[in-house]
């Protein structure tokens, strides 16, 4: 179900992000927390490309939430850089998954690597729940 122009389920997914002035700090490089926003956008678009809109999950009283994230910053991005934000399933469990996310300058340097542990929760009880079967099957193919 993933758009062939952006990747395949097995190979991962890439989302383009342009660095705007508002993303940078006083010295003109991307402020460290903004990389997390870029990764969040890529995860949302990855799910959308798989056919799962966030509002559809919420209608079923489910949501994916970040449980743990580990980030390694290798090089800075700067104003007006075009970045490629990747998403790949590294591990899948019944109630969650671990994603490998990389941010690169388009066609170039690796800038950031993150391991993101995401858990499926019941939005009413705010407790872990099994990933819905259709999504789990799709994610199994993505790993």
Helices, strands, pairings?
Layout: E1 13-18, H1 32-50, H2 54-59, E2 62-73, E3 82-92, E4 96-105, E5 110-122, E6 127-128, H3 133-142
Structural overview:
This protein has 143 residues and is α+β, with helices and mostly antiparallel strands. The chain has a single domain (13-142), classed as Thiol Ester Dehydrase, Chain A, CATH 3.10.129.10. Helix content is 24%, strand content 38%. The chain contains three helices and six strands; from the N terminus they run E-H-H-E-E-E-E-E-H. The chain has helices spanning 32-50, 54-59, 133-142; strands spanning 13-18, 62-73, 82-92, 96-105, 110-122, 127-128. Strand 4 (96-105) and strand 5 form a beta hairpin. Mean pLDDT is 91; it is low at 1-6.
Task: Looking at this protein, list some descriptive labels.
single chain; 143 residues; alpha+beta; 6-stranded antiparallel β-sheet; disordered N terminus
- Judged by helices, strands and strand pairing, the structural class is alpha+beta
CATH-level-2 architecture: Roll
Helix content: 10-25%
Overall body shape: elongated
Largest sheet: 6 strands, antiparallel
The low-pLDDT segments are: 1-6
Radius of gyration: 15 Å
Q: What fold name stands as the CATH topology? A: Thiol Ester Dehydrase, Chain A
